[in-house]
UniProtKB/TrEMBL annotation:
Keyword Magnesium: no
Signal peptide location: 1-22
Region (Disordered): 23-77
UniProt entry keywords in alphabetical sequence: Leucine-rich repeat, Repeat, Signal
A matching Pfam family: LRR_8
Protein known as: Uncharacterized protein
Family annotation (PROSITE patterns): LRR
InterPro entries: Dev_Immune_Receptor (IPR050328), Leu-rich_rpt (IPR001611), Leu-rich_rpt_typical-subtyp (IPR003591), LRR_dom_sf (IPR032675)
UniProt xrefs under Gene3D superfamilies: Ribonuclease Inhibitor
Repeat listed as a keyword: yes
Organism the protein comes from: Daphnia galeata
Domain of life: Eukaryota
GO cellular component terms given for this protein: extracellular matrix; extracellular space
């Protein structure tokens, strides 16, 4: 019984996150891609028990999903970990009889409770309005503990206040339901319980992220494939680790927009319209994070980062970067080296002139630069010989933080 439930949860999660066309991306490396990609490597998710009721017994399961990254990104085994808490739930946590699957009858929302004791799974299909859903949750499902709620193939429009009422929903999956707007208290009542919230493939043009500040358990927020244009302030959801904003129309990020997300590990801004970044756009407070900027129109990352907190992995493929200047890209590459990661820069029109000599002359840095090619003849920069740069003035003395650290260690040794 138990295993079947776990399998069902995993299935839901996989179905909602695994990309439809990982293969396609693999082939599309050379040209600008515009198709919407639905997912990215998924860091593990720990779903913890409700804040209100303490768990007694925890069951953990682990699975491995195939890598869903782009060409330039190494194949990574990503573990998805889900903890299901066997809590002392109220004995009445069973489906309302009128929502149980019935032979020959199509219900707007179906509830299953035979999967595991006390675990409820609700699936709503082809709802025609947010009101319809609101009504079901505010009557039949009031106070239920729902491990996963999935709404699909529906036309919801603007969501309402307390859309999911006072239900305890762990995974809230509402992908592709023509949602046009969230009000501030849309999820009030469930906010302490949601671990994963998927609102991708909807029509949101604005989100006030501070509405998630009270989501104490929220680890993964997916707002990919919406109509967002501008990230003013991504709020401070305390547990948020993964923020998907891919395939929107984002062209503006305010300084420190992500600066209050203390747990942020993965920021996905692929397939947006970024051209110029405000100073401090990527001032991030968490200490180990990665950034996906593939397929924007960035020509420079000048002043975007705080120098002491670079991402350890950055994907800059398919942008408009012509000049790999030492002051910006040196520290980024260095940060990648420190974490055994790489620097992805394929599909940029890099000018192979003397401005590149700092990199060409540094084999250590050059060795982790992936996909860099010269504008014009398209030759890989790794194939340029030192000969080509013989006549260049010597590169500005640039010492990477890593070099500095090594030098300091040496000094200490000698003293
Ligand atoms: C869940 O907890 C109850 C008691 O609280 C126990 O009887 C039951 O065996 C537990 N189930 C699992 C799968 O551990
Ligand atoms: C989606 O909903 C429409 C009606 O809104 C229905 O005609 C169609 O069959 C549904 N498709 C699926 C896959 O459920
Ligand atoms: C977000 O909502 C909060 C609370 O209603 C409000 O104080 C704040 O000004 C809103 N922020 C934006 C950018 O609209």
């Amino acid at each position: 019984m138990h295993l079947r439930w776990i399998t069902a949860v995993l299935l839901v999660i996989l179905l909602t996150t695994v990309p439809l066309d990982a293969q396609k991306r693999r082939k599309g490396e050379k040209k600008k891609e515009s198709e919407a990609i639905t997912a990215a490597p998924k860091p593990e998710v720990k779903q913890e028990g409700s804040g209100r009721r303490s768990g007694r017994h925890t069951t953990t399961t682990t699975t491995t999903t195939p890598s869903t990254t782009t060409v330039a990104v190494p194949e990574e085994e990503v573990e998805e970990e889900i903890q299901i808490t066997n809590e002392s739930r109220s004995p009445v946590n069973v489906c309302p009889p009128e929502m149980k699957p019935q032979e020959g009858k199509i219900l707007p929302c179906t509830c299953r409770d035979e999967l595991d004791e006390n675990a409820l799974m609700v699936e709503c299909v082809a709802l025609t309005s947010a009101q319809q859903m609101h009504k079901i949750f505010n009557s039949l499902l009031l106070g239920k503990r729902i491990d996963a709620l999935e709404v699909r193939n529906s036309t919801l429009g603007p969501l309402m206040a307390r859309q999911t009422a006072q239900a305890y929903v762990g995974n809230l999956l509402m992908r592709g339901n023509e949602i046009t707007e969230l009000v501030y208290d849309t999820f009030q009542g469930t906010d302490q319980n949601v671990g994963r919230l998927d609102l991708s493939s909807n029509q949101l043009s604005r989100v006030n992220f501070s509405m998630f500040d009270s989501f104490t358990q929220l680890q993964v927020l997916n707002l990919g494939e919406n109509q967002l244009t501008n990230i003013e302030d991504a709020g401070q959801a305390p547990s948020l680790r993964v923020l998907y904003l891919y395939s929107n129309k984002i062209d503006t990020i305010a300084p420190k927009a992500f600066g209050r997300l203390g747990g942020l590990e993965y920021l996905d801004l692929r397939w947006n319209n970024l051209q110029v970044l405000a100073p401090g756009a990527f001032h991030v407070s968490s200490d180990r994070w990665q950034l996906r900027l593939r397929a924007n129109q960035l020509s420079s990352l000048e002043q975007a980062f705080s120098e002491d907190n670079m991402p350890y992995l950055i994907d800059l493929s398919l942008n408009s970067i012509a000049s790999l200047t030492d002051n910006i890209y040196g520290p980024l590459i260095d940060s990648a080296i420190l974490e055994g990661s790489k620097f992805y820069v394929a599909g940029n029109p890099i000018v192979c002139d003397c401005s590149l000599s700092w990199l060409i002359k540094n084999a250590r840095l050059l060795s982790i630069v992936v996909g860099a090619r010269c504008d014009g003849d398209g030759s890989p920069i790794a194939d340029l010989g030192l000969e080509d740069f013989r006549k260049c003035p010597p590169p500005r003395k640039w010492k990477s933080p890593l070099d500095r650290a090594l030098a300091e260690a040496k000094d200490v040794d000698m003293n």
